[in-house]
Write a structure and sequence with these properties.
151 residues; Tetrahydropterin Synthase, Chain A; six-stranded mixed sheet; 6 strands; binds zinc ion
């Protein structure tokens, strides 16, 4: 069976701060992230399937990535769980509403692609595998995760 890769692109706005970093990234700041999720498999060959000819319906892939990643992180502040709530409150003296996502890792795009792969993989239908993820932090900086690098 022929294997095909398909990719869907997503965008989200998120703030983060790198715990203990020795540069400007220790400060809370935001990025316009661009996320590319690529899955691999064979298109459905059953002519009676409503998804005939598709590897996965783009709308299904969109729903998975929105539910697992984009809707949770868009307009949120992602912090390493080493950064305490008190540190955050100390930095934000105002009383603005804040959506905080605490994760057990440094919030670099390198670590985020690993986390995202773990979130997406269990949601994919049978016969569809996660091939790769690319996450742009800026227009010229990105990290990639490939299943083949992690077998
Ligand atoms: Zn940053």
């Amino acid at each position: 069976m022929k294997k095909i890769r398909i990719t869907k692109e997503f965008k989200f706005e998120m703030a983060h701060a790198l715990h203990g970093h020795d540069g400007l990234c220790k400060h809370i700041h935001g990025h316009s992230y661009k996320l590319f999720v690529t899955v691999i498999g064979s298109p459905i060959s059953d002519i009676y399937s409503p998804k005939y000819g598709m590897l996965i319906d783009f709308s299904d892939l969109k729903r998975i990535v929105k539910d697992e990643i984009v809707d949770k992180l868009d307009h949120a502040l992602m912090v390493n769980s080493l950064t305490s709530q008190k540190d955050i409150e100390g930095a934000l003296t105002g009383v603005l509403p804040l959506r905080i996502v605490s994760v057990p890792y440094q919030t670099t795009c390198e670590n985020m692609v690993v986390d995202f792969a773990d979130r997406i993989k269990p949601e994919l239908p049978k016969g569809v595998s996660l091939h790769s993820i690319k996450l742009h932090e800026t227009a010229t900086s990105y990290a990639e995760w490939f299943a083949s690098d992690n077998e």
